[in-house]
Amino acid sequence: MKFKELLLELSPFVALVLLIWALAFSMQATAEETQAPIQWTSGYCAACHGVGAEGGVGPRLVGQTSIDIVSKLVIYRDKGNVGNRSNMMWANAEKLTDEDIATLAEYITGLDK
Asked: What is the pTM of this model?
């Protein structure tokens, strides 16, 4: 039995509760998908670069261009060297897709506004 048919057979109150639940669940999934890059950035990147990418153990990222960020992350992903502590970035960067890198660069450059 399809969801819509089930709703028609239930009492109006139960149908309304199920409909609200279904909408809330679908909205939650959408919110989680939207927040994923931000959560990742706030978790892994923020540990060294700071929540606002202002720097810490790792260098300041705010103020860098998206081209700089993308090029450095690609180099790190390929286990290349950008500076004397490049190896600290290799494990995190190797997991990134091109889309992830573009999203991170957009997010970080957006912090500067």
From this structure: 0.64
CATH of the domain at 56: 1.10.760.10
Q: What is the per-residue pLDDT across 81-107, written as a single tens digit (0 to 9) for each?
A: 998 989 999 998 998 889 888 888 888
Could you give the CA distance from residue 26 to residue 64 in angstroms, rounded to a whole number?
36
Rounded to 10°, the helix 98-110/66-77 angle is 140
Determine the Cα angle at 21 with ends 7 and 2, to 5°: 30
For the stretch 9-66, pLDDT in tens is 655 655 455 456 555 555 444 444 444 456 555 677 888 888 888 999 899 999 999 9
Number of domains into which the chain is organized: 1
Q: Is the dihedral of CA 110, 105, 35, 46 positive or negative?
A: negative
Could you write out the DSSP letters of every residue in 43-108?
Answer: IIIHHHH-TTS--SSSPP-TT--HHHHHHHHHHHHTT--SSTTTHHHHHHHTT--HHHHHHHHHHH
Task: Give the range of the structural domain holding residue 73, as residue numbers without chain letter.
Answer: 3-110
